Amino acid sequence: MGKLLIVGTVAFDAIETPFGKTDKILGGAATYIGLAASQFEVDSAIISIVGDDFPQDYLDLFTERNIDITALEIVKGGKTFFWKGKYHNDLNSRDTLVTELNTLADFNPVVPAAYKDADVVMLGNLHPIVQLGVINQMKKRPKLIVLDTMNFWMDNALNDLLEVIKHIDVLTINDEEARQLTGEYSLVKAAQKIFTMGPRFVVIKKGEHGALLFNEDQIFFAPALPLEEVFDPTGAGDTFAGGFSGYLAASDDSSFENMKKAIIHGSNLASFSVEKFGTERMLKLEHKEIRNRLHQFKKLTQFEIELQ
Amino acid sequence: MGKLLIVGTVAFDAIETPFGKTDKILGGAATYIGLAASQFEVDSAIISIVGDDFPQDYLDLFTERNIDITALEIVKGGKTFFWKGKYHNDLNSRDTLVTELNTLADFNPVVPAAYKDADVVMLGNLHPIVQLGVINQMKKRPKLIVLDTMNFWMDNALNDLLEVIKHIDVLTINDEEARQLTGEYSLVKAAQKIFTMGPRFVVIKKGEHGALLFNEDQIFFAPALPLEEVFDPTGAGDTFAGGFSGYLAASDDSSFENMKKAIIHGSNLASFSVEKFGTERMLKLEHKEIRNRLHQFKKLTQFEIELQ
């Protein structure tokens, strides 16, 4: 069993989609990553920060799933990071209505002693200086450091982002961000350019259009499972990252072949996440459902063809 | 060896992309379909119409590839259909600068006697009344009728389109058109609605995002091969349709399993088509290149995963 260290937000989200809206519910990148990773045989810990408005029930959801929250700092008198957003009708774009950083403004992650030798570090979307600070606290080089980021940091902290990217193994970003980061429209060329920045692997997330995994001379593609209804895309990318890093930590094998499986596991879990608001679907997910849907993924993509 | 009947435009195109521009070159849906289908062991014929400005060299390109052009009408004193377009920088959208219907305005396809028993009929994008006219001339029901269409006919001849769709087996359209035709955003739901209109199979083309094949209870997905450079997307969809229908005519098997292979063959050939202007790449394509790229498709998509 591998050790997975997760760094990212634990938050309140208020979400509006064409299908309905929520009050403040459990959200945040580290939340989705942790819940997805807990589907695998891993020891995982979350480093994050919340206020004392964060309910015990939510904390219990983590500990019940064997997720170590020793390093989830609870600030007395502080308020938890809050995001409110509204999705457009096609669910492919959204407007952010409210962002209250609250306790996150002073987040200074401290890696717990028991996780300074983690096998896999999954750095959720945060300021790149915060992400780098976590890497620098590791007492030995993790087998795999995975970093997720977004265009906001390319616009506002590019040099810091380029610095942390030097130290990682896998970069996960979406297609538009890959183009922005590299100035290359072709995703193949974009990935090649990212390799010169440090990472050995690039995962390009295309939302409903699937995900691409690149190493220097191989490409693998996993589609998103076509669904009758996408209810709420919030957290799909983080759920993907959690399935990906959780599987890799559990299997302790970062070959390209095994990373392909990790991509499929991540896509599979993300396909559940979007079926209900927030974390609702992930909290009730059963092993049998996961297995059945993996089978659907195989049917969706596998073929036999004669190569004469 | 099966018989494939192809109906569609044979045309002059003038194309401008960010990488260059052409004068009038060989184009048209039936051209791309025919060239792609000729990669398989089929007897094929094109029904179309051109003017006597259409060069003998172009006609020879068809006959050299064993494509029957008896039913390619050459109108004396007439001019060949001409399309001129300019692609935007991302190559995902384009402006039509010139459309001269010319002889195509009076196109009244006549199915040659030798093809009234064709196994597969591939109806390229044309007025749905013209497409229906071809079906009505068949002396026995083809094993498979494939129809390609576009939003223009949904906007301008919807009732005619709905009529011809009743008589076909496979509808190929792009994702936006599937949504327009059905009013369903989810492609899964859109396909289900299209089944109630007549077809047993729906192929939804997503361009650089691949293609989905649906029957009533199965889905298959094929990605587009990620390329370093897409040079000219003109004809990619028709090349896909030609590879799809050509393979199905050659293999005489319209099971879902075999249709999956047809989708891969179509995607594979389309990946070449976009590498050069117009038909240039397709005219110089070698068997070995096709086989090697099929191998790339397998590597891109195939994985082993344990289903515990």
Automatic annotation (TrEMBL), chains A, B:
Coiled-coil intervals, chain numbering: none
GO molecular function per UniProt: kinase activity
Organism taxonomic ancestry: Bacteria, Pseudomonadati, Bacteroidota, Flavobacteriia, Flavobacteriales
Keyword Kinase (UniProt): yes
PANTHER family: RIBOKINASE (PTHR10584:SF166), SUGAR KINASE (PTHR10584)
Source superkingdom: Bacteria
A GO CC term attached to the entry: cytosol
InterPro entries in alphabetical order: Carboh/pur_kinase_PfkB_CS (IPR002173), PfkB_dom (IPR011611), Ribokinase-like (IPR029056)
Keyword terms, alphabetized: Kinase, Transferase
Carbohydrate kinase PfkB domain span: 21-281
Residues annotated as transmembrane: none
Protein name: Sugar kinase
